Amino acid sequence: MTPVAYQQADNYFIKNTVTGLVPRHISSSVEFARYFGMAATMGKNGKPTPIDFAAHDVIVYDAGIVQKQLEITPLTLNYAQDKLILDVRIRSGERKSYQMHPFVILIVPKNLPDKVEFKLLQP
Length: 123
What we know:
This protein has about 120 residues and is mainly β. It contains one helix and ten strands. A four-stranded mixed beta sheet has the order 1-7-8-10, with no helix packed on it. β7 and β8 (about 85-100) form a beta hairpin. The longest helix has 7 residues, at about 30-35. The protein is globular and about 40 Å long.
């Protein structure tokens, strides 16, 4: 396995028009905009992480629509056997009275395999 460098993208949200899961690998800004909106917040790190789709793609772990707090932590991203393997830790929290759509976006170099596999690790 070969480690793959990535940067986590912050301050985005999955649009409420998305009913299924977001694709695991997105390689264009047009496709990205179908699923995600920008969620600017106050403070020093309040702007969405810029993504240059000329040089980068994104890997998305989408937990689907849930009614509990989820903490999603990417641990490692590796390239092996013509696919990307992302180890993700999921911590499940308390049940909520509302629905949410938790996810994580990783910015990766362009020209990596489209096939992405997730290894989910419970704490």
